Amino acid sequence: MEDTIVAISTALGVGAISIIRVSGSDSISIVNSIFKGKNLEEVPSHTINYGKIIDKNEEIDEVLVSVMKSPKTFTTEDVVEINCHGGIMTTEKVLELLIRKGCRLAEPGEFTKRAFLNGRIDLTEAEGIMDLIDAKTENMRKMAMNKVNGRVSGMIQDLRNSLAQIISNIEVNIDYPEYDDIEEMTTDMIKDRVGNIENEISKILKESESGKILKEGIKTSIIGRPNVGKSSLLNLLLDEDKAIVTDIEGTTRDIVEGTLNLDGIILNMIDTAGIRKTDNIVEQIGVNKSIDLIEKSDLILFVLNNNEKITEDEINLYEQIKDKNHIIIINKIDLESKLELPFSDENIIKMSTINNTGLDDLKNKIKVLFKLENIETSDFTYITNSKDIAILKDCLDSINDIKESLKHDVSIDMIEIDIKNIWNKLGEIIGLTYEDELIDYMFSHFCLGK
What are phi and psi of 327, to 5 degrees? Predict the structure, then answer.
């Protein structure tokens, strides 16, 4: 990180302004070399300075330049931001000048990566920044902010502090047995304290299910036989003509996707091809995709036709989905009822997509099924990263190993090894211990200039 990096930090295109960000030890001197105005190397930190960008004797743009000196910056390095007039050619010309003067074009996420490596933020806070950029709902924004402001990191750090107390007490007992004023760490005490940590991790993991819903949404598949109203249901939910609707069976031959914001929770809707036996190769591919999606979905909307008798294929479909999160939608209730269900189910909604009947009932059923009302009243302090969830589950496995060791009177110094292992694993979540490959992969998913 000895070099000075540069990138355009605003979306490239026509706009009122565009911002070019520079970070590194030479950032102020490099920008100063193309700036006509005050001497940027002598201005106070955190000031905005008016002037012009010049290339030899040619004026390129009239700009405002923000100078922020180390260490009180996002990266903790000297940072300069050039506010140009919005426009592709002008912005790229200024960027080209800075590269010619010695800057290196930043990689995606490199500014945030430097903030992490320089100790300005931890790994969870960095993930929060990316989540904040990607937030599509108010709930997602709140959850991301709890990462950015350190609440999630604090939750993990509290667990590590509890483990550190156990470790330090054990080591003092082993190294200085003559100290009578130091509490002796017995197996019963270890069992109680580790049990408390186990309860906290289990609680975090349980709440992470809500966090996953907030961050990733609910993957929702609409399934059923052809011509029962699946595409009409998708269009009704999205309030747009996303899918083609006809009376011809097999119209939908591939999956059609859309997104619904249900009171701050994203439903990733997928209208699947009608599931039936067919000799049409293209339609059969769509049917196979529909069947595969049943296993991958968080929620299945199983549509039946109120005007037709249930078929053997539909009964078989129900057997596949009955143990998953599902809602049975009896559509076309505006027509004569010929449907008799050979099973009972508490998740049944009656609708008419033609008359817009039953839509609110369906939305309310989804809220109840996923306990969305409870999510909305929580404090949004969640672990949502799959890697972090896997680490927490590993920690629970290690705690189970400790409990087994305690049952078999394993020596405390051996148990301490497992406790240290949990402490180290929790450190991976907030980035106190990490592998370079993991860090490179994570920040490569940021946008350029961030």
Answer: -135, 130
β-sheet bridge partners, residue 58: 55
User: What's the sign of the alpha-carbon dihedral 92, 94, 98, 100?
Assistant: positive
**Which residues of the chain carry a pLDDT beneath 70?**
1, 173-185, 240-256, 272-291, 374-380, 434-435, 437-438, 441
d(CA 195, CA 436): 33
Query: How many other C-beta atoms are found inside a 10 Å radius of the C-beta of residue 263?
Result: 14
| Top CATH class, 151-213+385-431 | mainly alpha
256-262 — which CB contacts under 8 Å span 24+ positions?
Answer: 256/231, 258/234, 259/136, 259/217, 261/136, 261/137, 262/363, 262/366, 262/367, 262/372
pLDDT at 380: 66
**What residue segments make up the domains of the chain, in order of their start?**
5-117, 151-213+385-431, 218-371
CB neighbourhood size of 183 (10 A): 10
- Of all helices (H) and strands (E), which one includes residue 203? helix 187-216
| DSSP per-residue codes, 33-65 | TTEEES-TTTSPSSEEEEEEEEETTEEEEEEEE
Model's pTM, two decimal places?
Answer: 0.66
